[in-house]
Design goal:
CATH superfamily of the largest domain: Tandem AAA-ATPase domain
Shape: flat
InterPro entries: DUF3670, Helicase_ATP-bd, Helicase_C-like, P-loop_NTPase, SNF2-like_sf, SNF2/RAD54-like_C, SNF2_N
Radius of gyration: 34 Å
GO molecular function, one term: hydrolase activity
Largest sheet: 7 strands, parallel
Strand content: 15-25%
Structural class: alpha/beta
CATH class of the largest domain: Alpha Beta
CATH topology of the largest domain: Rossmann fold
Protein name: Helicase SWF/SNF-related protein
Keywords: ATP-binding, Helicase, Hydrolase, Nucleotide-binding
Helix content: 40-55%
Strand order of the largest sheet: 18-19-17-20-21-16-22
Pfam family, one: SNF2-rel_dom
Length: 892
């Protein structure tokens, strides 16, 4: 592994779920690199055993967020295993049950990571059971004791011994608590051991001093660190029931981690274990309906103090400051009195009251408060429980944002040429509701679910609303990668032909020099430009747009680039970001996105960076972060059963690409050459050969100029299809999915493999007609295996039939065979029995070329009879006259 630079990715697969983990680090030393390599090898050797190994391991190198999450799950199992009473007696019969609430909490605290959408309680429970099975299988054949097994795995972790400490409440006045030490005496009825008072051990082992010392080893270890337990041991009281004062009980409760570290399992009052009687500062935001709606609406704010469920006044808490520190019996409950914590909590409460009196919060500030409350109120984590909740009105708003089905539906507007699917209708209503609140929205639906059509429907609805009210139409600025201009133009023309648009790019229309911007703006509904053009068209930042829409919004993930800064200079009343990738893969990406959508929601870059660093230490902040950002993100997955019910299992998409200047020049030159040869005339066979040879040349030019010219460079910038391929595959990579890329040309399979290896940062595979038959099965097995192989490039003749490649859920037809039956047969390498996901099929088409024109012909004829177009080698094209052929060949 290259020093500190290589990222290792493995898909952990379980019952149809996939979750990937990464090991990545910056400039690791040799020791850290060796440990990461060991970790990787452990996984490759045995994925099931790997998790148990991870639970015992003490990392000596940085772990990624996803691997830290798996480490936390495994460590929880190991802790539960270590604290299992009578483990030595149970051994391979041990059943370690997971706590349901712990699993739910772990899901809530899961970091943003690839595959997070696949997490659910059943998946985690399955991994938990696997670790249990692995332990039982290993301990069954292990010759030593359980303690020795633990020591061999990790010297820092030891199972609990046979001694237990119990603390319970008592009704004795001077001694309100009782202490008792017990021990496990061995297996009893139904495999469960009997627990006896520790004094019984003096009788049981009076003839065997060695066994008595072994039994008391954990007690002696605790006594070395605790004066309280040392006194009990020295006086012999450890062997008898004891009444404890409140002061002694408080000492015991605070020292429980110390006793457990020594190997003693402790039973304590439930109110201490669950912190049920803890001091709490509760803040409620947004009970009342604000006087006006929108992002600047003022939200009310309230705060209160409580001990457990009992609300407390400031005077009552100040009275507690006069109490002795420790445990106090208040309102029928035992509570902890810590003067420093009380002072800190009271100070935070007073700050909350000042904030309430000073001003109400805007909607964005109210949402941000949930994330930054501890910092804003300056409440140390250990001082009290800080509870932030939404009031009645704000809860209703957040519920609508997170559950679009509860938003009043709207229509897509007049002259809309499509029937939206149910989930797309909900997306349209959600986008409009977000706009009505003035809140930036991130539409993050999976690739293939139709983000583009939902936005077009919104713009068409807004145009209709304005027209009906005789108001000036809204002006939307749409910023897209250059390779997507053709896609948007095609979709607008298809679904909302009444929407007028202007392309602000050298490849299309642009603002004439010296033109009046105001009159120019009144001509169109949508202005389409690219990220790169924002710097060239400086006037775009001088206009206040009604809507600013970013497609492939991951383009602004790096806040420091010129491109991102240019985007954020654009003024707009409403902002929409579209992305098919998980927007949460990297926390810095998340901050940059929300700095665009709703500035200030996640604080400044430094504030969020500080927050992110704390997440490295404690995952608890992830649940708060999700609570804050989730209302602004609408993400539907193809794996969601409510979406699947409304989707075909195979989603076909046309991916339009624009020709580069070099491609266009070569294309036009070939058109002129063909025209000259056709006009010169020739025998029918010669003419047919010319046409078929020309078709292949056109396809080569559309793929890449170097394929047509017979060169080997294959620069990415010279092919529109390469740019489109990168965008699609970056999304596939961000989700750690796999793709089949079909081409009819063997000569481009190698260049495609090299290009895709750079995009995916991983090597893929190639299969074509010259691949030895003996190696083909090996290629299939590697692609289908557990190790992440992101892509397989296939020639359509060699790979289009017979292979089972269900590990892929994306199929790209890089160039078209122009025979639907052949293409469908190739697609079915992934779309077949054993496929657990919806398959997305991307059919590449270069705009304005013969590829687009033949695609339209196929589409029209397919409406009459499915798959009516015969193979290209037959006469359906060669039978055209010269005029028809030139119209087909001509670059539009």
């Amino acid at each position: 592994m290259a020093s500190g630079t290589k990222e290792l990715i493995v898909l952990i697969r379980q019952e149809g779920f996939e979750l990937d983990w990464e090991i990545a680090g910056d400039e690791l030393d040799n020791r850290q690199i060796l440990w990461q390599e060991e970790l990787y090898e452990k996984y490759r050797e045995d994925p099931k055993r790997f998790l148990l190994f991870l639970g015992f391991a003490e990392p000596t190198a940085p772990l990624s967020a996803s691997l830290r999450f798996l480490k936390a799950l495994a460590a929880s199992f190991v802790k539960a295993l270590a604290q299992t009473p009578d483990l030595e007696f149970l051994r391979e019969q041990a059943v370690i049950e997971s706590e349901g609430k712990d699993i739910e909490r772990m899901l809530g605290d899961a970091p943003y990571m690839n595959g997070a959408e696949n997490l659910n309680p059943d998946w985690l429970e399955t991994l938990w059971r696997q670790m249990n099975e692995v332990f039982c299988g290993e301990i069954k054949t292990y010759r030593g004791s359980v303690a020795q097994y633990f020591a061999a795995q990790s010297p820092g972790i030891q199972p609990v011994g046979r001694v237990f400490f119990h603390l319970v409440e008592s009704k004795e006045g001077d001694y309100p608590f009782a202490f008792l030490a017990t021990y496990s005496s061995g297996a009893g009825q139904k495999g469960k051991s009997k627990h006896l008072p520790l004094k019984n051990a003096l009788v049981q082992y009076k003839e065997d001093n060695k066994k008595l010392l072994e039994l008391l080893a954990t007690v002696n270890k605790a006594a070395e660190k605790s004066e309280l337990i040392a006194d009990f041991v020295d006086s012999g009281e450890i062997f008898h029931p004891l009444g404890l004062s409140g002061v002694e009980a408080y000492t015991f409760l605070r020292e429980i981690p110390l006793y457990e570290g020594a190997g003693i399992l402790c039973r304590m009052p439930n109110w201490w274990k669950t912190k049920a009687n803890s001091l709490r500062l509760s803040v409620t935001i947004g009970n009342k309906v604000p006087s006006r709606l929108g992002a600047e609406a003022l939200i009310d704010f309230d705060a209160r103090l409580s001990l457990g469920e009992e609300e407390m006044t400031v005077e009552e808490l100040r009275q507690l400051l006069s109490e002795t520190e420790g445990l106090a019996f208040i309102k029928g409950k035992w509570v902890e009195v810590d003067h420093e914590k009380l002072k800190q909590t009271l100070a935070a409460y007073e700050r909350a009251l000042k904030l309430k009196d000073k001003t109400d919060l805007t909607l964005v500030e109210a949402m941000r408060f949930q994330l930054q409350a501890a910092k804003i109120l300056n409440v140390p984590q250990e001082a009290c429980e800080l509870e932030i909740s939404n009031g009645e009105w704000l809860s209703t708003v957040v519920t609508r944002l997170t559950r679009p089905e509860e938003i009043k539906p709207i229509a897509a507007g007049g002259d809309f040429q499509a029937q939206l699917r149910t989930y797309q209708d909900k997306g349209l209503s959600w986008l409009n509701f977000m706009k009505s609140l003035g809140l930036g929205a991130c539409l993050a639906d999976d690739m293939g679910l139709g983000k583009t059509i939902q936005v077009i429907a919104l713009l068409n609805y807004l145009r209709t609303q304005k027209r009906d009210k005789a108001e000036e139409t809204e002006k939307a600025l749409l910023v897209v990668p250059a390779s997507l201009i053709a896609n948007w133009v095609k979709e607008i023309g298809k679904f909302a032909p009444s929407l007028t648009y202007c392309i602000l790019h050298p490849s299309g229309e642009k603002l004439p020099d010296g033109a009046d911007i105001s009159s120019f703006l009144r001509k169109y509904d949508i202005f389409i430009t690219t990220y790169g053009m924002l710097l060239r068209y400086a006037w775009l930042a001088e206009v206040t747009w009604d809507s600013l829409i970013l497609d492939e919004a991951q383009a602004i993930k790096n806040p420091g680039t010129k491109q991102t800064r240019a985007v954020k200079k654009i003024k707009a009343a409403h902002r929409i970001a579209l992305t098919g990738t998980p927007v949460e893969n990297r926390l810095t990406d998340l901050w940059s996105l929300f700095d665009f959508l709703n500035k200030g929601l996640l604080g400044s870059a430094k504030e969020f960076s500080d927050f992110a660093k704390k997440l490295q230490e404690s995952r608890a902040g992830y649940s708060r972060l999700k609570k804050v950002v989730s209302p602004f993100i609408l993400r539907r997955l193809k794996t969601d059963k409510t979406i699947i019910a409304d989707l075909p299992e195979k989603i076909e998409m046309k991916a339009f690409a624009a020709l580069t200047k070099k491609q266009a020049a070569l294309y036009n030159a070939l058109v002129r050459e063909i025209k000259r040869k056709l006009e010169a005339g020739g025998p029918g066979i010669e003419r047919k050969g010319l046409i078929l040879a020309s078709l292949l040349k056109f396809k080569q030019i559309c793929n890449h100029p170097d394929q047509y010219l017979g060169q080997d460079l294959y620069a990415e910038s010279e092919s529109g299809k390469y740019a489109r391929l990168r965008e699609i595959c970056e999304t596939i990579y961000d989700k750690r999915e796999r793709v089949l890329v079909f081409t009819q040309f063997k000569e481009i399979t190698g260049p495609l493999q090299e290009f895709l290896a750079r995009v995916f940062q991983h090597q893929g595979l190639v299969l074509h007609g010259e691949t030895p038959v003996s190696k083909r099965q090996q290629i299939v097995e590697k692609f289908q295996g557990p190790e992440y192989v992101p892509f397989l490039v296939l020639s359509i003749k060699a790979g289009g039939v017979g292979l089972n490649l269900t590990a892929a859920n994306h199929v790209i037809h890089f160039d078209r065979w122009w025979n639907p039956a052949v293409e469908n047969q190739a697609t079915d390498r992934a779309f077949r029995i054993g496929q657990l996901k919806n398959v997305v099929v991307h059919k590449f088409i270069t705009k304005g070329t013969i590829e687009e024109k033949i695609d339209l012909l196929i589409e029209e004829k397919s409406k009459l009879s499915q798959e009516i177009i015969p193979d290209i080698q037959e006469n359906w094209l060669t039978g055209m006259d010269n005029r028809e052929l030139m119209e087909l060949f001509r670059l539009s």
